[in-house]
Write a structure and sequence with these properties.
The chain is an alpha+beta fold. It folds into 2 domains: 154 residues, no CATH class; 78 residues. It is 17% helix and 32% strand. The protein has 6 helices and 17 strands. The strands form 5 sheets. The chain has a 6-stranded antiparallel beta sheet, with no helix packed on it. The radius of gyration is 22 Å and the shape is globular. The two termini are 33 Å apart.
């Protein structure tokens, strides 16, 4: 049995999660728990510790004013984009596309571009607990998006209104974007615990996890840590030009293709869509690969060559 990622009032309670509500007169946020009546009166001390743990995770306890600013509608922050991971530095200059949800219960987002070399952006965002911030690197002058870095407001808020994105948090931030469109559901997620469980269960690469399965259970408000599982992985060999190829996944290591046997050997490739870039020439060559349980398709975007097959 896994650990629930929605803060519950009682650890063994079969139903229920802790939500936050706003008192319209005082403006104070308070905890409310929609659980069956018997559970409301059981384990009061345990409930107190669980509530304290949640509020600490959200930065709402007294003494956290230097991390979480006073609640209002919007706040201006400085977003520090993530440094390129090796060997992405061989892709040339990287721009960054910053994506942030714009409104509660709405799937619209704001997009701002940070050109290569700037390193930071000042942006006004909505003050929402667990608001995801996505930082997509892309090759300057092109539209080749790489796997994003990310951060969560206000959990990652540093001093003087600054947030630094991290590739380690990119999967989590992208996962929370559709959840943010569900209104109060976003505030109910125990993001601190979800972050820890994702990293511990990903074997060092969160992009190997089954994002759709995690998102589905989050949207139903019944997320448990034992639902965080890896997708099926496959080995695949493709004809490719000799040179060094890097993945759009920052945690998938580079692959060297020799001239005597020009085969791109992809090992442990999880199902889904992938991009690989050849970084030895001025013109970056790209291969797109789609892997499913039944087979695969691939195409060299530069040459138009490609193929498909079944397992």
């Amino acid at each position: 049995m896994g650990i629930s990622l929605f803060p519950a009032v009682k650890r063994d309670a079969p139903v229920g999660r802790l939500l936050l509500s706003m008192n319209p007169r005082s403006g104070q946020r308070s905890a409310r728990c929609p659980v069956p009546a018997p559970a409301r009166h059981a384990g009061r001390l345990d409930a107190l510790f669980r509530t304290t743990e949640l509020l600490a995770a959200l930065g709402l306890l007294v003494g956290c004013s230097d991390v979480l600013p006073k609640w209002g509608r919007r706040i201006e922050i400085e977003i520090i984009v993530a440094d390129p991971v090796a060997p992405w530095d061989r892709l040339g200059a990287l721009d960054h596309l910053i994506v942030v949800p714009t409104a509660r219960g709405d799937d619209t987002t704001s997009e701002s571009r940070v050109v290569a070399g700037q390193g930071a952006l000042r942006l006004t965002i909505e003050k929402r607990t667990n608001l995801p911030i996505l930082d997509y690197p892309l090759i300057a002058g092109r539209s080749d998006l790489l796997r994003p870095a990310g951060a969560v407001f206000p959990l990652d808020l540093e001093g003087r209104g600054r947030i630094s994105t991290s590739y380690r948090e990119g999967f989590l931030a992208e996962l929370l974007v559709p959840v943010s469109a569900a209104g109060e559901l976003l505030e109910a997620v125990n993001v601190r615990r979800l972050r820890r469980e994702i990293w511990e269960r990903s074997s060092g690469d969160p992009w190997r996890l089954d994002r759709d399965a995690i998102l589905q259970t989050l949207m139903f408000g019944a997320m448990r840590s034992d639902r965080i599982r890896a997708r099926p992985c496959f080995d695949l060999s493709l004809d490719a030009r000799a040179g060094t190829w890097v993945s759009g996944d920052p945690f998938y290591g580079p692959i060297v293709v020799g001239s005597e046997q020009p085969v791109l050997a992809l090992r442990g490739l999880p199902s889904g869509a992938h991009r690989f870039f050849r970084v030895d020439d001025d013109v970056v060559e790209r291969i797109d690969v789609e892997v499913t349980d039944s087979g695969w398709e691939w195409m060299d975007v530069l040459t138009g060559c490609g193929g498909s097959g079944r397992w």
